[in-house]
Amino acid sequence: MPREPPIFSDIFYDPLTEDVEELLARFQQTDSVRFEDFSAIWREMAFSDVFIGIPKVAEMKRFCRVAMATAAKFFLPPHSYQIRVGGLYLMFGLFHTQLNSPHVKVRLALKDWAVVQKFIQDSADSGHQDVVYVFRKLVAINAIYYTAMPHLLFFQKQKKKKREPVCAAFLGRTTAVQEFSSAVILEELAHVQIQYEKLKEASVEVNREVTVNHMDLCARLNDCMSEFLEWQQRMFSQVKEDEVHAEEKPSEAEYCSSRAELLSSIKQKSYSNFRKASRSKRPRPGEAAADSPSSGAEHVRVASATLQRQRPPSLRARTRKSLGVTLPERKLQNWLLSVPEQQQRSPGRGPAASSRA
């Protein structure tokens, strides 16, 4: 009896990913990173029930592994800070509510450890004690499994990795430009430029007309940063509008009616353009025979036979040609069962002799 293929054989499970994205989207709307707000949404969605309904122990273990990998995906970049906090809380909740015994741990690759440490340090500096406590609690109960690879490696694994689509609303914005556009930094840059102009005027060796920067550098830089921030805000608002329009999909009845109207319009156009061919324009029997599929097949057969006869020269012939060796032409008589009468027989060679040979 053939073995049934596992249900949760992939790294990520699409229905579970959709539920997790809905949970994190609700958490993102709260504009908070408190564990209390996340746990309220968790209880409202009854998210602990995702482990119910799997009777087999092997399938339960595999599903718990997929759930932990899904939560760890949202805990790592390139997601925003709030979504990463939600991913950390999600790992904490899934680890304590899973039905597998012993509990499946969260696989954390060594290449991501520096990013996690920086995230925890930034949270501690910002005063988000909930984030620091939840992470240290996971470390204390040995819920994190430090590995070399983020996922299990096994025999006959697909060479091409499955790429999961990233939700655009969960991505973190580039805040480096916004931090650089503060008034203090621009004022300091203007002060440095003034000192540069004073030193250039005081020096005698340097020509005063020589300049390596623009006089209105601060104003130009401020305009460029403002333009970039406006473009960033416009792009994020456009992504949200696209999501709203995607939610407002037409119903199935409207889709069927529009499809029927499109097909009827295409048929009407094709029937209006149809004209009967006149007798003068009808093909003659000879022409029909020439254009028939059998004649085309015969032509293809002849062409293929011609290509087969045109064989390339052998390796021996090409080698002799490259070395410049020429052989005298020899007319070899093909071996025949019977010799034509008009062919001149050589002395001592006849049909009987050739047959004896």
Described by the principal axes of the CA atoms, the overall outline is extended
How many β-strands, per DSSP?
2
How can the largest sheet be summarized? 2 strands, parallel
Strand order of the largest sheet: 1-2
Query: Structural class, from helix and strand content?
Result: mainly alpha
Q: How helical, in percent, are the residues? A: 55-70%
Strand content: under 5%
Backbone CA Rg: 40 Å
The termini sit apart by 65 Å
Descriptive key words:
extended; single chain; 357 residues; mainly alpha; disordered C terminus; 2 strands; 14 helices; two-stranded parallel ribbon
Characterization of this structure:
By secondary structure, the chain is mainly α. It is built from 14 helices and two strands, in the order H-H-H-H-E-H-H-E-H-H-H-H-H-H-H-H. It has a two-stranded parallel sheet. Helix 1 (14-29) crosses helix 4 and helix 4 packs parallel to helix 6 (129-140).
A few lines on this structure:
The protein is mostly helical and 357 residues long. The chain is 57% helix and 2% strand.
Write the layout of secondary structure elements.
Blueprint: H1 14-29, H2 35-45, H3 57-75, H4 81-97, E1 106-109, H5 113-126, H6 129-140, E2 144-147, H7 176-180, H8 183-202, H9 217-247, H10 252-272, H11 285-290, H12 293-309, H13 315-323, H14 351-356
Parallel strand pairs: 1-2
Helix pairs in contact: 1-4, 3-4, 4-6, 5-6
